[in-house]
Amino acid sequence: MRWKLLRRRLSVSAPRVIVRSHLPWPLRWLVVGLMLGLSAALALWAFEFGQRIAGVQTGSRTQVKALQESLAAVREQYAATRAIANSAETMLKAERAAQERLAEQVKALERRNAEQAEDLAFFETLMPAAGDQGWAVRGLKAAAEAPGQWRCQLLVMRQDGGGPRGAAAPRLRWELVLTGVQAAHGNKPWTQTEAGVLEGGRPYQRLDRVVAVPAGAVVRQVTAKLYDAAGAVLVTETRRL
After folding, report:
1. Total Cβ atoms within 10 A of residue 203
2. Considering the domain boundaries, does residue 21 fall inside one?
3. Bridge partner residues of 173 (DSSP)
């Protein structure tokens, strides 16, 4: 039996034996603390060495604080400048709006003055000249109203105030002559005539007629004529267009 135990211990299948040194736990903690302290010291040394290599001075915190204060001041100044710019822009917009309103008012006044000047010129044409006797044609106008249509307007006036009291109004005939060219036919001369009879009993009469013209006709001139009962021409008025 002893031989078997001895052979088992001396053979390959014999159990392994590990020899360990026994240290008390205070010494183990001390060794661990020394290793951690050494690691921290190495890390601090590496950090300071990196700062020296990067050129960071010891007063960098003070400089950073000063830079932050300068940035805050610049931001405040920018905000104030921006507020002033916004106020100036608002004032500029208001001034532009006022100028636009003033320009519109000026244009309206100019249109009104032009209309009044046109009315004055028209009424001046209605006033009889010194020494005028008989009938007159005033305010002759002609303008294109639609394709192939021209509107002609005029005022027929009796200069002597209606003649002797109790005298019968004469029978008069009016005639409108439109002349021009036909562009579709090589600018060939063209004439269009409209005629009618005036109503008696009034010292003035306003005529408003729409005259049909051929397609492609260009009106260059309009002439108004007034005839008496015998066919004699009393007055002629021409307006070039």
Report:
1. 14
2. no
3. 197, 227
Judge if 70 and 119 occupy the same domain. yes
- Token look-up 């090589």 returns 186
pLDDT 10s digits, 213-238: 888 888 999 999 988 888 888 889 89
Arithmetic mean of pLDDT over the chain: 77
Can you say whether the dihedral through the CA atoms of 39, 44, 48, 53 is positive or negative? positive
Tell me the pLDDT tens digit for each residue of 163-182. Answer: 545 455 567 889 999 999 98
- Is 201 within the bounds of a domain? yes
DSSP structure class, residue 21: -
Residue 18 in domain: no
Query: How confident is the model at residue 67, as a pLDDT?
Result: 82
Residue 201 to residue 234: CA distance in whole angstroms: 18
Q: Name the one residue in this structure whose structure tokens are 């921006």.
A: 82
| Residue 126 near residue 138, CB atoms below 8 Å | yes
What confidence score (pLDDT) does residue 132 get? 47
Which domain, by its residues, includes 61? 54-127
Assigned token pair, 190: 């063209």
CB 228 within 8 A of CB 172: yes
Position 114 scores a pLDDT of: 84
The per-residue pLDDT for 125 is 60
* Residue 171 neighbours by CB under 8 Å, 6+ apart: 197, 198, 200, 228, 229
Length of the chain: 241
